């Protein structure tokens, strides 16, 4: 199982949440709105490339009818079964570590 860092996990989860339109620009907007951090295009694309090289996401080119894109295709992101497994494993580890810490964290 591929190990992933915090930002890689956030990107993976953001792609999963964008199931109807999983494009990088929407993933970036979601991250900025919900993770409380600025995300540069470079950081996002480097992370997407790492997730791709680890076999956790794939992408396919999709024709674009958006006039602003000038006919350039869009990169549709797809989380692989291995990506879902990695997200599930990360969730389970985090839940184990957070279990019982409510009083300490909320204190």
Keywords, separated by commas or semicolons:
Arc Repressor Mutant, subunit A, two-stranded antiparallel ribbon, 11% strand, globular, 5 helices, 107 residues
Topology:
Blueprint: H1 6-17, H2 24-34, H3 41-53, E1 57-62, E2 74-79, H4 81-98, H5 102-106
Antiparallel strand pairs: 1-2
Helix pairs in contact: 1-2, 1-3
Q: What is the N-to-C succession of helices and strands?
A: HHHEEHH
- The spatial strand order of the largest sheet comes to 1-2
CATH arch. level architecture: Orthogonal Bundle
Q: In angstroms, what is the radius of gyration?
A: 16 Å
Number of helices: 5
- Whole-number mean pLDDT: 92
State the helicity in percent bands.
55-70%
Strand content: 5-15%
- Low-pLDDT residue intervals, each spanning 5 or more residues: none
The CATH topology annotation reads as Arc Repressor Mutant, subunit A
The CATH superfamily title = Winged helix-like DNA-binding domain superfamily/Winged helix DNA-binding domain
Shape: globular
Largest sheet: 2 strands, antiparallel
What is the strand tally?
2
- By CATH reckoning, the class would read Mainly Alpha
Structural class: mainly alpha
Q: Kindly report how far apart the N and C termini lie.
A: 36 Å
Explained architecture:
By secondary structure, the chain is mainly α. It has one domain: Orthogonal Bundle (Arc Repressor Mutant, subunit A). It contains 5 helices and 2 strands, in the order αααββαα. A two-stranded antiparallel ribbon has the order 1-2. Helix 1 packs across helix 2 (24-34). The longest helix is centred in the last third of the chain and has 18 residues, at 81-98. The protein is globular, with a radius of gyration of 16 Å.
């Amino acid at each position: 199982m591929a190990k992933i860092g915090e930002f890689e996990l956030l990107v993976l989860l953001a792609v999963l949440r964008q199931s109807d339109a999983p494009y990088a620009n929407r993933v970036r907007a979601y991250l900025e709105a919900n993770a409380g951090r600025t995300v540069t295009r470079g950081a996002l694309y480097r992370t997407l490339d790492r997730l791709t090289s680890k076999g956790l996401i794939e992408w396919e080119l999709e024709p674009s009818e958006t006039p602003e894109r000038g006919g350039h295709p869009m990169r549709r992101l797809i989380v692989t079964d291995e990506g879902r497994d990695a997200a599930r494993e990360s969730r389970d580890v985090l839940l184990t570590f957070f279990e019982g810490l409510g009083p300490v964290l909320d204190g």
